[in-house]
Protein 1
Amino acid sequence: MADLGPRLVRLPRLSSLVLLCLLTSLAWPADLRVPANVEAGKGFSIPTEGSGEATFYLLGPDHVAKRTVNLGGSVQIESREVRAAGRYQAILCRSSCNSTTFEVKASQPARLSFFLHPSRVPVSMPDSVDATAFVFDQYQNLVLSPNSVDFRVTPATGAAFSKQSPAKNGVAWMRMSGLRIKATSNGSVVTVETDPVRDCSGNALPDGTVVSFTNIDQAGKSTVDTPIKKGVARGQFRVHGTAHINVACGVVLGNELALKGSL
C-alpha cells in the first residue's frame, strides 16, 4: 500500500536546488493552481486532474516535503508546511512533472524585538538616542506589510510619553535628544537650570516630571531630584572645590558642567 502520509525531508540548500532543476526540466501540460495570497501558517489545497497516483513535492525556504497523492483530488498543504515566509515551489510528478511557484507572506504582527542605543547620551550629540523595533509574526517572519508601532517611554520618575512611528519593511524607529543645563554661582552655592524639557516628539514634558541633578566634588556625590515647573527644572548645590554636575531625566542624560567652588 502506498504511503499517503506527509513527510518532511530536511535537505541542504544545494541539494534542494539540484532536485528542483531535475524535476522542473520535464514538462506537463496541466497547470497547478495555488491561491493568489498565502499567509504563513495557513493551510490550503491544490486541485489536481487525472487519475492514479503521483508524487508531490513542496520546496520551501527551510524544508522539502514529499508524499504520494491521488490525482483527481486535492493536495492538502498543512499549516506547518508553510510557516516560513518566502518563495515556495509545488511539483507534481507522474510520467512527467509540472510545477508552480508561489509566495507565502508573514501573518499578522505578534512580536517585537526592541533595541535602544545608546542607553544614555550627552546633549552635545543631539538626536542620537535611537529606539528601533522589528515587527515579527508568531512564526518569527519579519512582517513587511505597513504597520504602526507605539513607542512608550516610562521614566523611573515622572510622567510617561509616547510616539507612534510607521513600520516600513518590518522596521520602525524613533530618535530622542538629550538635555541641556546651565549654571550660575554665588560663591560656593551653584544653581543649575535646564533648558525647556521636551519628549521625543518635541512636546514639553508636563510639570511634575522629576529631573535628577548629580554633583560630584571633593566632598563626595550628592543628588537633587526636582520636579519640572513651567517646562524647566532647577537645582541647587553647595560646591566644594572642583565639581562636575550633570542632569538626567528617564533615559536621557544631559551635558556635564565643570565648576570650581569654595573649600
Protein 2
Amino acid sequence: MNLSAHQPNFFPWLGYFIKVAVSDFHIILDDVEFSKNNWINRNIIDTGGESYLTLPVNKSDTSKPINQVRLGQEYQFSLNKIIKTLEHQYKNSASFAFIKNLLTESIDKNFLYLSELNLFYLTSIFKFLKISTPIYKKSEIELKNNLKATTLLTELCKKYDCSNYISGVGSKSYIDESKFISNKISITYVKDLHSIFKKYELNKNSILQLICEEQYDINAKFPILVDDYKKNYLYKKQITN
C-alpha cells in the first residue's frame, strides 16, 4: 500500500491532490515546523501576470509548529481581497460560486490558527474532487516525539503498514533513501506529474485557478487524470530495496 504526507498548504496546486488520490493513506503534517516564504500561507494565480494570494500570520509564531501558528488579525480582510481578485477575474464562471462560498464560509467561521483554516479548505476540495483517501493529522497519531524527517516518514509507513512512500521531488534534498531501503519501504517520486500537466494543458498554479477556469472542467477531468497517472507514470521513478 502507498502512503503520502504533506504540510497543510494554502490551496495547493493540482499535483498535490493527484498525489493524495493515488495514495492509500495521506498524512497532514500539521505539527512540523512552519516555513517562511513557502506555500503554507500563500499561492499564485494568473491574472495576466503572477498574482500572489497571501494569508497573514502572527509574526511571533513563525518559528513554531504549523498548528501553533495563529492567523494575523487582518486575515479576514485578506480573504475578502482574495474574493474580489477572483471575482474580477472569473465573475462569469459558474465554478467561481463554489470557491466564493467556500471563502465566505471560512470568514464566518473566525478561525484562529492557520492550519485549521487550511485543513478546512483542503477537506472541502477533497470532497469537491471526490477523493476518498483516508486523511489523518500527524498531531493526532501516536508516535515518538521529535522524529527527524526520514525517521518520521518511515515510522508513518510502518504505522499504516505501507510498503511504498509517495514523495514530491523536493523531498529528495532531505530524504535518506537508505533508511527506507533498510526498512523495506520503497519510494516513488512524483516527478512525472509535470508530464500529466503538459499532456492535458493544465496550469501549475493554485487549485483555485483550475476550479474557476471552466474550460478545464477539473471536477469532471480529475478521475481521468488520476487514472492516467496511476497507469502510465506513478511507478516509473520508484526507488526499491
Protein 3
Amino acid sequence: MPLYIFLLGSLLLLSACGGSDESVSSGPERVEKMTVRVSNGGCIAPDDAVDTATLLSTTGCFADVANQTMADGVVPYAVNSVLWSDGESKGRYFAIPDGTSISLTVDESSVVASNGIKNGDFNFPVGSVVIKHFYNGSRIVETRLLMNHANDGWVGTAYQWNEAQTEGELLTDARQITTPVNHYFPSPDECMACHTDAANALLGPDTLQLNYTLYYTDGTEEGYLDALARLNYLSALPLAEYKADRLYAINDGAASLEQRARSYLHSNCSGCHRTGAPQGGFDLRYNSSFSTAASNVCGISATEPTSPTGGLHIDPGSAANSTIQQRLSSTGSIKMPPLGRDQADPDAVQVMSGWINSLNGCD
C-alpha cells in the first residue's frame, strides 16, 4: 500500500477540521499503519525552473491525472488552521527525493512567548515539491506546485485544470476566471510574494500546523510528526517543544477565541507579517508574545490606517477600531490577504471580532 493511502484517511478528517472552508467530519477514520517509506515515483523538482513541466501529467507527481491519483511517495498532509480561499477546499501533499529528509529548525525570531512554545520550520531538501489542489465544490480548479530547484531555489507555479477534469496546464501569468467557477490563479511572482524567505518559503508545513494525531486500524494512535520521523521523512524525532502546542481551526468550538483568532492570523497573515518579511513591521505568528513591545500589534497605530479616523492594529475592546478586523472584513482595496480571496471569511470575522472585543489590554 503506497504511503499516500496510509495517511489519506486520517488526513481527510484533519484537513477538513482546518477551517471554515473545509467541512468537519464526524470522527477519526482509522487507517492502516505503514512500516516503511515508499520510494518517490518521480515527483522531483527539475534543477532549473525553466524546465518545469507544462502539463501535470508530465510532472511525475501523478500516477493517474484524470483520476487525481498521486504518484508513489507523494505524501498527503493536513493543516490545523487553513488559509481562507473563498470557501474552496484543498488537498495538500509533498514529495522529497529518495535518500533525503526534512530537517526541523526552531523559528528563533518568534520564540518570545513566556510559555516556551516553539514552532519548527520544515527545511525541505533540494528537489522537493509541495503540492496543493484547489476544489470548488466537486470540481478541481487548480493545482499549485511549490518546487525547490537546485539552481533557482523555491518557485511557485499554477496549473489550470481543463473543463473535462482530465489535465492541468501550466500558467506563466496571473489569470482570473469566472466560468465554470470564479477563481484566481497567481503568477509565479505573486506566489513568492506570500511565500517569503522569512517564512522559509512555506506557509503550511510547520510543527504548529502539523501537530495532530493519526488513528490506526490496530487501535493505536501516533502523532503525524512522529510518523514522519519514524518513516525517515524527518531527519530526527521532533523536539518536545515542537509538540507543546498547535494551531486551532477557526470553527473549533473546543478552542478559545484567542486560540482560534491567533491561529487564523498565523495561517492567513504571518507569512508577510513577521520579523524579516517584507511587511515585517509587526508580528502575527501564533507563538509571538502579544505584549506591545514584542509583537508591535496590540495598541499600536497602523502605519496605513484603513479609515479616516485612523486606528490601531488591535485596539483592545474595540474590533471596530482595529485595522486587522477592518481588513479581514473588507472585500475592497484594503482587504487582507490582498490575493486569493474576493469574499470575507464569515467565521473568521465573527471570531476575530469576539476576541478583540473581549480584550481588556495588551498584556
Protein 4
Amino acid sequence: MNWFRKLCKTRRVQVAALNIGVPCNAGLSAGNGIGLHETQGGRAPGIAVSRGMGFCRDSLRSFNRTRAVLVLFFGFLCTGLWAQTYPAKSIRLVVPFPAGGATDILARAVSQKLSERLGQSVVVDNKPGAGGSLGSDLAARATPDGYTLLLATTSTHTIGPAVNPRLPYDAFADFTAVAHVGNAPSIMLVPNSSPAQSVKEWIAYAKARPGQLNYASSGNGTIVQLTAELFKAQAGLFVVHIPYKGTALAIPDLVSGKIDVLFDSLPSGMPHVRDGRLRALGVTSAKRSPLAPDLPAISEVLPGYESNTWFGVFGPKGLPADIVARVNQAVNQTVADPEVRDKLARLGIEATGGSPAAFQALLKTEYDKWRRIIDERKITTD
C-alpha cells in the first residue's frame, strides 16, 4: 500500500489503457487486466497487462466505460487519503511583525485553540521587516501543502500593495485566502478643549475653519492616515496632516490641544477616554462596536464610512481546496470559542470568521477603497 500512497501524494497516477481489450469469444484470461503506471515510468507491482488483436467493438466500449470508472475511483481515493492525513505534522503560522505587537498577540491567542481543532501544533513564527512584506513574501514562496500559513493584515494585503507597487509579492495572485479572523476598528479622539461634542459638530467646526485644524497619524501611508483621509473625503474637509512615529507619541499633543483629532485603535485610545484625558466622538466600524457600545458609529453621520484593520489567514497560491476547507473550519470554530473571543476583545478585535470566498471578496473591496483614496489624495510613504 505504501507505493500507492506515494503515487496519490505526488498525484501522478494514471490508468494505462493503450491497446488493452477483451477477446470477442473469450472471457478475461489470467493475463488480461488493467495496468497502473506513474507518469515518470515504472508499472505498479502485481498487475499484468495483456495486449492482443481481434478485439470486438462491444468489448472495447465496455472496457472504456470500466476504465473511466476506475480513473474516477482512483482520483477520489487519492483525494480522500490526502484529506484524511492533513495535518500530519506541526503547522508554521508566519507573523510578519515583531513579537509583542498586536498581530503577534492575536496569533498566540488563536494558535492554542487552533492546534486543538487541527490535532497538530500551530507554531507562531515571527518574520518581521519592511512593514510586513518580508514575512509575507516568505509565506508566498512556501510549498502549498498547508504546513506554512500566514497571519496577514490590512497593511500587508490591501494598503501596502495599494501604496507600494514595488512589493515582492502580489497580494492576490500569490496567496490563497483561507479565513477572516477579525476586525479592529478605531475611534475618533479629540482633546477635551474641543468645542465639538459629536461627529456632526466636529465636521461643522472643521468646515468653518478650512486648513486651520490638523490631525495626527502614525506615519505616511498607514491605516491611521488613510482612516483620517477617508473621513476628510466623505465629509468634504480640509484638515492638515501631521505625521508622528506612532500614535503613542501623538497622544500628549492631542491632550494638550496642539493636535485637533486622531483616529486611534480602541486598545490604545480608550484608556485615555476612561481616564478623562480625551473625548471619543465615534467608532470607525460600519455599525456600533460591541467593544465600545456607547460610541456611535461615524457612519451614522457619514453613510458608508468604514475603516477597520482586518486580520486573516492565508496560504500560498495553489493551496488544495480540501486543506483550505479544513483550516477555514478550524479557524471559524476557534474564533467562535468564548475564551478566544474574550481575548480578542481585550485586544480591540471583533472576532469574525466566515468563508474563504467572503474573505476574498472583502480583500478586493478593501483594496479598491484604499487605492482610490491613495490615488485621489496622492498619498505616498515618503
